[in-house]
Amino acid sequence: MKILLVCTGNICRSAMAEAFMQEFLASVDGDIEISISSAGIQAEEGEAPPPEVVEVMGEYGLDVSGHRAHRLERGDVEEADLILTMAKHNSQKLLTGYQEAVGRIFTLKEFVIQGGKRGRELKERDPETRLKDLRGWIRHIEGWDSPPDRKDLNEQLRLFMLHYFHIYDYRFTIDDPLGQSMDFMRRTAEEIRESVQRLLGPEILAVL
């Protein structure tokens, strides 16, 4: 399974999420075939993370100094089984260029919070398959009458817009810390770490 993490510049939030995910996956016993990558919708290709990001991630024992921003390309979207954005406006912008991916786009916190409501109801399967199943279940929770891949694309888009413009819960977004204080940067990193741990950590994989 390929998970694509997306934010605006790919130097703060999605870079942090990628590092945390790689760390957690490395700590899990067993053969879990999940690959992680990240990109930014408006990224400057090759840009390095700000010193503040490097410092904060270093406090977790993670070195992101070698990370370089990657500008989102069509191939990234087409190859991803699951696209997790950091904020709702990232999802909205993604949709303008990649309407066919509507059934695979979620914010990270949306997927974790909503997925947790149904994760234990799914049949016992490997984590990769369960993540794919949750992708459909979450939209069902939010009012989609059937899994996205069974709907006409126009109907999928209509429901997506309804969700993000009328039903959207602010709890499902992670604010951009760029240009904010170090305390804000640390809170953002911890928010991402907690979300990643709930998604991929050993305690959640035990029920996924």
Question: What is this entry, summarized?
Answer:
This protein is an alpha/beta fold and 208 residues long.
Task: Sum up the structure in keywords.
208 residues, alpha/beta, Rossmann fold, disordered C terminus
Distance between the termini: 14 Å
Alpha carbon gyration radius = 16 Å
CATH topology group: Rossmann fold
Uncertain spans: 144-148, 202-208
Question: CATH H level: which superfamily?
Answer: Response regulator
- Counting DSSP H or I runs of 4 or more residues, the number of helices is 9
CATH class: Alpha Beta
CATH architecture, by name, is 3-Layer(aba) Sandwich
Secondary structure tally: strands: 4
What would you call the structural class?
Answer: alpha/beta
* Element-level helix/strand string: EHEHHEHEHHHHH
Please tell me the overall pLDDT.
Answer: 81
Q: Largest beta sheet, briefly?
A: 4 strands, parallel
Q: What is the strand content?
A: 5-15%
Share in helix: 40-55%
| Strand order, largest beta sheet | 2-1-3-4
Number of domains: 1
Shape: globular
Give your account of this protein's structure.
The protein has 208 residues and is of the alpha/beta class. The chain has a single domain (2-205), classed as Rossmann fold. Helices cover 50% and strands 9% of the residues. The chain has nine helices and four strands; from the N terminus they run βαβααβαβααααα. The protein has helices spanning 13-27, 51-58, 74-79, 88-97, 108-118, 127-141, 153-167, 182-200, 202-205, and strands at 2-7, 35-40, 82-85, 105-107. Strands 2-1-3-4 form a four-stranded parallel β-sheet, sandwiched between helices. Helix 5 packs across helix 6 (127-141) and helix 5 packs parallel to helix 8. The longest helix is centred in the C-terminal third of the chain and has 19 residues, at 182-200. The protein starts with a strand and ends with a helix. Mean pLDDT is 81; it is low at 144-148 and 202-208.
